[in-house]
Write a sequence for this structure.
């Protein structure tokens, strides 16, 4: 058998971590020969803030345009192709209340090349160049690039909202969290894009790199010494006072609210946001994870069985957790005329779980599903990195093995308690314009 | 059937990739492929040659959408929904229907693989279609179709197949239509199942920490007792004859999407199809990909964007087409420039001069195709569904030369007559190719 590390040892992290540069850069190494390539990921986190979030999203686009050594898009892309099709991207991503500027590079290991070329190290050098030596004539990002990326970014945000399910998710959390960072997107806001010029973006990049505590993840056929050599490429002058990443926490909506908006949609997109205050570091979080699978796990959850399979009211219904905020969302594609029935089924199932709890079979199945998924994370580097970074940002570090062990001890009472704590906060429906006559109060 | 009656069994090792692939074929035609690899998950993928194009059976012509309907209905059995039983193994199960195949994929812990295979066998081999459940499923599928009616990716793909192949089966929605769904009943499902879900139409692809011998024994116990298809075989798919036209499909979008559809003569032999697909991927990347002059010029002029612009290639025995395009403010201008680029007489020089860069990129992509279980499974499926050993596909990539690309460009792209599809604001309009 080819099992690697046959069991996820409790308490053993997937990464060997080391503080570098006086604790301003954390190096996390996952050494394994099971992959064909080495990945290098640099994360620069900050709290999501209006305007700044938009600026960082624009910067990510500019960092894909070129470096001083590869000064235009074509030269940069030709270079990564020459590194045997190395995969490079820059992006901003949201982790709860945080926005992270991420630089990613994956390059084939020497073992699989006709001759050794140390592509991992060359890739790390490219990421260093991208961040510290971007193509910025006269010391600032060029106005032509900035203009192109402002336009492209506005169009990209508009295109992402054309996915009606994404639009419903975005609108629901915006309405639910008017004063919390969770309302903000890692892409920023289209109305803020034109507020930035090349100088402002250059200064924002400089201040962001100076103030962030960076995390560098290296995964693949590397040892700590090689990874430390890579980390030296990310030495830069840091500010004396690094940014505090304390999350401001979530505020509670006093009364449930319902918002219906009309748009060009073929089917209603329903989102219901619930708050329970059970976030990643909360002792009841493992029970919250199980509750989510029991309630709305796709194809196994109560909502799927009742609303889709028994009642035939929709094709898609599922729940998911926003783990760093402690929110639970239920989403469904519905006929607007069925809005009340679907809402009632969702409320009934949550109430039932909050009073009677799950059956033994439901609990056992949910436990197996999550434990399998926790184990399967080890087969996907990106998932490993996400699991680790998410918990570092939330200051709720726990190994997968320890979490699996706690999950095995969660009982039905704990799940019932968690279900009883959830409060419906915001119901949002994106309704087709043609359904206006069946919605009370519609224009 | 016993193991002694095996038709074929082999293990091949690829030194460059440091990978091995086991293959076993039983007398009833069922094939098993295993790529052993370290990890905590076994991924089991069952591909059945039962797609939306498989409409003709010796008994009846099946309504559009039957294969997809069947995929939905297979989960329910007389003792309940199998989904719960997969969950009881901690397994994630997924299913998908395409033009030529329906596939079922299950990820599970190694210790529970046998249980998962048992359920998978029940899933595809035990027909159970009570009329009441079929009625309910029809409503669910209608809602599924409706859900995708505002999905730009799906709407654009559907419109592009209609612009390429008007009124032909390949242009029908894989899920069918409101009208065709009313004609799918328990009898049609049973007919489809009887003729399409046969062992000689099935390929089982497994990746993960698994040994071949016990896996083969388990599969043999579950599947090898089945008999081959009856003599009355399923007719081959109707050859898709391109009749390119222009379609404008209305959808509320900030920016229209253009797909230029380029049809080619179907390759007939599957291995030829694989070669053509590989060459077209390579050529389109060299002419239009991120490192091309086309991409940088038109990205900088904002005619295209980096998110949506790209190409897709679909080649099988009975059809062969490519789609190129993306979101743009000026679909007509983008289409004209794409056509100029694809038919540029200097293309052979470009393909020859830029070959080393493209070759290094293709080599890297080939190696990383064996990075994780999911990508390995995709790679194996791409090869075996076209009758090719996966390592033959590896060798095909490694042995491709600039001359091969130039030859494929000359036959498939240089003189193409494309179908135009624009999705965006405006009215639904269909015009002839020269309209």
């Amino acid at each position: 058998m080819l099992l690697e590390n046959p069991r996820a040892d409790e308490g053993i992290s997937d990464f060997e971590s080391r503080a570098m540069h006086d604790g301003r850069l954390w190096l996390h190494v996952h050494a394994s020969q099971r992959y064909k390539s080495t990945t290098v990921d640099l994360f620069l986190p900050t709290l999501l803030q209006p305007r700044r979030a938009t600026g960082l999203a624009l910067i990510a686009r500019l960092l894909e345009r070129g470096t001083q050594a590869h000064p235009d898009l074509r030269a940069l892309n030709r270079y990564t192709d020459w590194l045997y099709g190395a995969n490079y991207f820059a992006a901003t991503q949201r982790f709860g209340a945080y926005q992270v500027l991420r630089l990613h590079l994956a390059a084939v290991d020497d073992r699989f090349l006709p001759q050794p070329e140390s592509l991992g190290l060359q890739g790390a050098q490219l990421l260093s160049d991208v961040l510290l030596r971007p193509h910025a004539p006269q010391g600032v990002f060029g106005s032509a690039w900035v203009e192109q990326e402002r336009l492209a970014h506005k169009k990209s945000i508009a295109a992402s909202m054309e996915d009606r399910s994404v639009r419903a998710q975005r609108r629901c959390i915006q309405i639910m969290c008017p004063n919390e960072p969770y309302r903000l997107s890692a892409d920023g806001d289209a109305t803020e894009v034109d507020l930035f010029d090349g100088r402002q973006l250059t200064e924002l990049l400089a201040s962001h790199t100076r103030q962030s505590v960076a995390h560098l993840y290296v995964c693949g056929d590397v040892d700590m010494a090689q990874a430390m050599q890579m980390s030296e490429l990310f030495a830069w002058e840091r500010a004396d006072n690094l940014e505090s990443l304390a999350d401001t926490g979530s505020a509670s909506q006093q009364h449930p609210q319902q918002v219906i908006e009309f748009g060009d949609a073929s089917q209603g997109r329903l989102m219901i946001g619930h708050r329970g205050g059970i976030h990643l570091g909360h002792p009841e979080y493992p029970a919250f994870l199980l509750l989510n699978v029991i309630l709305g796990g796709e194809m196994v959850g109560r909502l799927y069985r009742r609303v889709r399979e028994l009642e035939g009211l929709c094709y898609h219904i599922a729940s998911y957790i926003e783990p760093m905020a402690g929110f639970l969302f239920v989403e469904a594609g519905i006929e607007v005329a069925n809005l009340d029935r679907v809402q009632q089924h969702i409320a009934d199932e949550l109430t039932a779980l909050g009073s009677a709890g799950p059956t033994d079979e439901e609990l056992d199945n949910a436990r197996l599903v999550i434990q399998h998924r926790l184990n399967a994370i080890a087969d996907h580097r990106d998932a490993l990195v996400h699991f680790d970074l998410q918990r570092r940002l939330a200051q709720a570090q726990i190994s997968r093995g320890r979490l699996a062990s706690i999950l095995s001890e969660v009982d039905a009472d704990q799940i019932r308690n968690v279900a009883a704590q959830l409060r419906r906060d915001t119901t949002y429906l994106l309704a087709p314009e043609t359904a206006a006559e069946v919605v009370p109060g519609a224009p | 059937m016993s193991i002694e009656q095996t038709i074929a069994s082999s293990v091949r090792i690829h030194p460059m990739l440091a990978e091995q692939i086991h293959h076993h074929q039983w007398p009833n035609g069922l094939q098993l492929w295993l790529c052993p690899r370290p990890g905590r998950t076994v991924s089991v993928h069952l591909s059945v040659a039962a797609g939306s194009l498989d409409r003709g059976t010796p008994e009846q012509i099946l309504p559009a959408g039957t294969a997809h309907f069947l995929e939905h209905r297979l989960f329910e059995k007389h003792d309940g929904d199998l989904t719960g039983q997969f969950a009881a193994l901690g397994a994630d199960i997924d299913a998908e229907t395409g033009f030529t195949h329906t596939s079922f994929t299950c990820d599970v812990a190694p210790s529970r693989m046998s249980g998962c295979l048992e359920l998978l066998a029940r899933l595809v081999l035990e027909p159970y279609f009570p009329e009441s459940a079929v009625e309910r499923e029809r409503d669910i599928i209608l809602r599924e179709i409706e859900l995708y009616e505002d999905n730009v990716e799906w709407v654009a793909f559907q419109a592009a197949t209609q612009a390429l192949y008007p009124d032909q089966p390949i242009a029908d929605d894989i899920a069918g239509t409101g009208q065709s769904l009313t004609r799918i009943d328990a009898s049609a499902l049973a007919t489809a199942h009887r003729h399409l879900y046969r062992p000689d139409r099935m390929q089982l692809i497994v990746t993960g920490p698994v040994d071949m011998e016990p896996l083969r024994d388990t599969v043999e116990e579950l599947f090898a007792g089945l008999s081959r298809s009856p003599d009355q075989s399923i007719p081959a798919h109707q050859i898709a004859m391109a009749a390119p036209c222009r379609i404008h499909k209305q959808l509320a979008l900030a920016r229209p999407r253009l797909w230029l559809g380029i049809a080619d003569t179907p390759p007939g032999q599957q291995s030829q199809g694989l070669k053509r697909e590989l060459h077209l991927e390579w050529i389109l990347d060299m002419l239009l990909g991120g490192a091309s002059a086309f991409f940088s010029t038109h990205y900088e002029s904002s005619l295209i964007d980096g998110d949506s612009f790209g190409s897709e290639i679909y080649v099988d025995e009975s059809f062969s087409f490519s789609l190129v395009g993306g979101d743009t403010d000026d679909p007509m201008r983008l289409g004209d420039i794409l056509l100029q680029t694809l038919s540029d007489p200097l293309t052979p020089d470009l393909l020859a001069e830029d070959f080393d860069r493209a070759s290094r990129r293709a080599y890297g992509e080939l190696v990383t195709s064996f990075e994780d279980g999911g990508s390995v499974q995709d790679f194996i499926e791409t090869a075996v569904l076209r009758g090719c050993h996966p390592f033959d596909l590896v060798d095909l990539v490694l042995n491709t030369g600039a001359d091969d690309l130039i030859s494929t460009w000359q036959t498939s792209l240089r003189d193409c007559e494309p179908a135009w599809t624009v999705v965006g604001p405006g009215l639904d309009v269909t015009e002839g190719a020269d309209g």
Notes: The longest strand of chain B covers residues 320-327.
